[in-house]
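Lab notes, practical 5.
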Amino acid sequence: MRASFPSPRAGSTCELALVTGVPAFTTTLKTGSPNVLQPDRTAALIAAAMQDNRLTNDGPLVQELESRFAAFQGVKHAVAVANGTLGLQLAAWALGMRGDILMPSFTFIGTAHALAWIGLRPVFCEVSRDTHTLDPQRVVDAVTSATGGILGVHIWGQPCDIESLQRIAKTRGVPLLFDSAHACGSSYRSVRVGGFGDAEVFSLHATKSINGLEGGVVTTNNEDLAERVRLLRNFGFVGEDAVSGIGINAKMNEFSAAMALANLECYDRLFAHDREIHEAYRHGLAGLDGIALQECRPDSRRCDHYAVVSVSETAAIGCEALRRVLAAENVIARRYFFPGCHRLPPYNREHRSLPITDRLCRTVLQLPTGLQLTPEDAAKIAAIVAHACEYADEVEAVLATREDAR
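Output from the prediction step:
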């Protein structure tokens, strides 16, 4: 039998839904809620594709997306694929990556799976405490004779220490690939990411800033590499009946390209909106001990599609307690990337000491962003966080009561 909802303590002025049962939002705000910027434009492009009866196989919308995405990211070549996971696999295969691939554990599990699926071995390295991206010195320390490549991840749109990683890859003579799933529109030293390393892979998944329902784009300034990726994504076909070698079906369809094109056209609008959301969070969270909004490194500019807060041990309330407070208010914040790739099967078979990664997985929360909320909503969420800190003891007591009732 479920316990009754706890009543506020006598004389308490706590207004959190965890105590009162009345959430601040009647509509649930979710981390990663899709942005649909131009539904009519998307529908018109899809209708035209159906009218032309050209739905896939390198159709005109895919070709247009590739051209416009390359221009947007400032690279010579962009190859559209069915999703970012396949993009990573095709790029790694085309680069001839073999053996151990040095990469962070602090990333989405799909990054590691993409490599393991094609027979590569992810070797997890520590990340920087400040940027949450791959620590170049830890990469140097992890290099062995079995190292066959480096994979950096631009987390939260924050570019890696690209220059250092490029120098290491060149010195060691191994390919350098970047997972740029979070980084549409991000820049490193005034240059848009996309052309760094040997190749970069962007995601156009529904949760990303520029989404194509599903989809991905491999970008590079290397013409030969781009051509190899194009062959790989279409079974290796070089003509109607001729095949150059092993390939797979990783083509993007026209409907996904239509959605991505319509959203790409409105990137500036989305960027400005997310910047306002960030400013509201930043202002509302300022001065809270132990709670900080993740900021971009001075030499970089990122898209602000990800609003990430770190909840340190000095905060009045713990990270998991805060997540539950927000959930009661219909605000779904998420722990990223809990518990870390190195602690999930099959990678947890090997013991790896990654204390910074472990700490980040325990203390990082991603808050809702995008067109689902207004700056005023973000300010209200920040106020909830501040209120939770003020009434942390009462929150912990309520949560403890609920745990006892299970």
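Observations recorded by the TA: The chain has two domains: 17-31+267-333+368-405, 39-264. The chain has 14 helices and 16 strands.
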